[in-house]
Amino acid sequence: MTDKTASDFSTWAKTRQARIEEVLDEALPPDSQEPTKLHGAMRYSALGGGKRVRALLCYAAAELCNTEIEVADAAAAAVELIHAYSLVHDDMPCMDDDDLRRGKPSCHKQYDDATALLVGDALQSLAFDVLSTPQLCANANQQVSMLNILAKAVGSTGMAGGQAIDLASVGKALSQQQLEDMHQLKTGALIQAAALLGAANGTLEQISSVHIYAENIGLAFQVIDDILDTEADTATLGKTAGKDADSNKPTYVTILGLDVAKHLADQLHKTAIAAITPFGEQALRLRELAAFITQRNF
């Protein structure tokens, strides 16, 4: 799946971002199809926004493991649909109550609470629909395994469980380990799933290394998020800056301090890179993506 025309990471990333946008556009029902309001809201929430980090992780891991492009497309679309659903629900008044997402009004503000709830439900269902496309994989067991990876990543022992712990932790003093455990579920589980789905065709050695890489880069992603929440403004982030601090939520910055949090992100980055070093140039995109995640200032 190596793209000979991608001369640098920026070109490669833009190409993959455009590709996943097309895949999602094709997967989502047209807003002319009934129920038109729901389908319009689904497209509003899933298209035209974000850096597509999870899709990029899926594609980068696929390049390392020679996973077929059609399989990588389906996997990348599935994780992006799950991510979009989680953002729609996270922003609702009963959760984080945020009016801004990806630089535009949150789904419940653009539409209404009931529509936003249904959008999240429908996007989650569509993710599994895409990934369960008949004969997507030549090996049916591989496809079942991929479905299992995604299901575990989004359930009560994954993303949903992490969100539940997050909501229960407001105003509480957490240890670094407790915070890490929470984010391994809330943020890290889907990031790990994205990489593992991309690596579906890999050897046991490749899959094990990708797992270690994704586990560390997933935590690094959250640490950087907490740093940016402190240092960046709303216009730069595309969401409300300082929201976690204002909500009295524990973050890596509040627990460790800004300098130590930055050092932790650097250490997590180094551990992630070490895991894929044995694969040399095959892991180029994963290395570049790790740098992109830990050095972002958007």
Assign an overall shape: globular
User: How do the strands of the widest beta sheet line up side by side?
Assistant: 1-2
The CATH class turns out to be Mainly Alpha
CATH architecture: Orthogonal Bundle
Q: What separation lies between the terminal Cα atoms?
A: 29 Å
Tell how many strands the DSSP assignment holds. Answer: 2
Query: H/E series, N to C?
Result: HHHHEEHHHHHHHHHHH
Uncertain parts: 1-6
Largest sheet: 2 strands, antiparallel
Strand content: under 5%
Tell me what you see in this structure:
By secondary structure, this protein is an all-alpha fold. It has a single domain, classed as Farnesyl Diphosphate Synthase (Orthogonal Bundle). Helices cover 70% and strands 1% of the residues. It has 15 helices and two strands. The chain has helices spanning 9-27, 36-46, 53-65, 69-90, 107-110, 113-131, 140-154, 159-168, 176-198, 204-231, 234-237, 243-246, 252-256, 258-276, 284-295; strands at residues 100-101, 104-105. It has a two-stranded antiparallel ribbon. Strand 1 (100-101) and strand 2 form a beta hairpin. Helix 3 crosses helix 9 and helix 7 (140-154) runs antiparallel to helix 9. The longest helix has 28 residues, at 204-231. The radius of gyration is 18 Å and the shape is globular. Residues 1-6 have low confidence and may be disordered.
